[in-house]
Design brief:
four-stranded mixed sheet; globular; 38% helix
Length: 132
């Protein structure tokens, strides 16, 4: 989480749009539960998508984890074997970078699940939220 908050504190250019520095996010165990559930599902079923194997969205997964939100965003990644790699991948993607730099986001949960039998081996989910 320190890498994430360092990026937020420094500001960033996301896809050609300058994004000002924003406040740090804090860890939330309900967002972690939603992120873990999605990474486990992707790794167990060897797929990569924002839609869960049951058709769920990130917002539905967060709600099902008991998080009451007024804002949510989700970043996913697959194949990166380290935090530095996945963060760079997200920062290089305008939409994922925008989610990281969203000033409304106040809390986060991040999970990585490994399955060596799968195509990607590593499945990452980052759930952002602002409590409602």
């Amino acid at each position: 989480m320190s890498r994430l908050n360092q990026v937020r504190a420094a500001g960033r250019v996301c896809g050609g749009t300058a994004r000002a520095a924003v406040a740090a996010v804090s860890w939330n165990t309900k967002l972690l539960a939603a992120a873990s559930q999605h990474s486990v599902d992707m790794a167990a079923k060897n797929y990569f998508s924002h839609s869960g194997s049951d058709g769920s969205s990130g917002g539905q997964r967060i709600t099902n984890a008991g998080y009451r939100w007024r804002m949510w965003a989700e970043n996913i990644a697959a194949g990166q074997s380290s935090i530095d790699q996945v963060m760079q991948s997200w920062l290089d993607s305008p939409g994922h970078c925008d989610a990281i730099m969203n000033a409304t986001a106040a809390e986060v949960g991040v999970a990585c699940v490994r399955n060596d039998a799968d195509n990607y081996k590593y499945y990452w989910t980052m759930e952002f939220g602002a409590p409602g």
